[in-house]
Amino acid sequence: MPVQYYIFLSIALFCIGVMGVLMRRNAIIIFMCIELMLNAVNLLMVSFSKMWADAGRVDAGSAQLFVFFIMVVAAAEVAVGLAIITMVYRNTHSVDINILNRLKN
Amino acid sequence: MVLSVIALVSALGVVLSKNPVTSVLCLIVTFFTIAGHYIMLNAQFLAVVHIIVYAGAIMVLFLYVMMLMNLNAELEPQKRNWLKYAGAISGGALLVVLVAALRDASMPALSTQATEIGLIQNLGQLLFKQYVVPFEVSSILFLSAMVGAVVIGKKD
């Protein structure tokens, strides 16, 4: 199975995530689309790790550790981001991101 | 192949469904299919961690916040139509550009034989020998994220 297959799958997942960020106004769904994009990159990195391992490189595990660190950062990001969304909802009773226009004035 | 089709369909379901809870469930299905891909790529440890962290922790957090807010489908704010089309077109254009750029790239085929690289023994050796400093830094990051989440979420 060629590596391109995984590259194209990751590209498709990433573009679906981009579309979701651009199309939706619900802050939680935008957050979920960001998670989707992170996962597309993770999948790409794991497939490249397999490619390097097939090529006989001993340090191919580094890519999988990078994926591990991306998961760590994503978990921290979700914790803080959901706290912010909860705070916004408590103050405005809406998760519409357009309401954050008010931060301008 | 079947896994990828399920992944793409449920990823589209995340974007297109009106009800936020349906989006969360579709995203969980996507994460499970991605974990299946990890297993096929001999990254067993990452597959297990992926299921535990994403499907087990992050999506439960999303569902919990959603139930806390009592979101309904009719509450969902709708964007103007031309903005939706513009978003879909620009996402599709990105897809077309990336695919066209990488279509002719020559990449080696992945062999079907198993590699030992994704086992927890090898990854643990690598993590605690070569990457021990990033590991400690990520623990500090976690601590600060925890403190930040509590401080932001605190009622004042």
Explain this structure.
Chain A: It is a multi-pass membrane protein. Chain A: It catalyses: a quinone + NADH + 5 H(+)(in) = a quinol + NAD(+) + 4 H(+)(out). The complex is a heterodimer of chains A (105) and B (156). Chain A has one domain (3-104): Orthogonal Bundle (Helix Hairpins), CATH 1.10.287. In chain A, helix 1 runs antiparallel to helix 2 (27-54) and helix 2 runs antiparallel to helix 3. The radius of gyration of chain A is 18 Å and the shape is elongated. Chain A contains 3 helices and no strands. Chain A has 105 residues and is mainly alpha-helical. With 156 residues, chain B is mainly α. Chain B has 2 domains: 1-76, NADH-ubiquinone/plastoquinone oxidoreductase chain 6, subunit NuoJ (Four Helix Bundle (Hemerythrin (Met), subunit A), Up-down Bundle); 116-156. Chain B contains 6 helices and no strands. In chain B, helix 2 (20-40) packs antiparallel against helix 3. The longest helix of chain B is centred in the middle third of the chain and has 26 residues, at 44-69. Chain B is globular, with a radius of gyration of 20 Å. Chain B starts with a helix and ends with a helix. The model of chain B has no long low-confidence stretch (mean pLDDT 86). At the A-B interface, helix 1, helix 2 and helix 3 of A face helix 1, helix 2, helix 3, helix 4 and helix 5 of B.
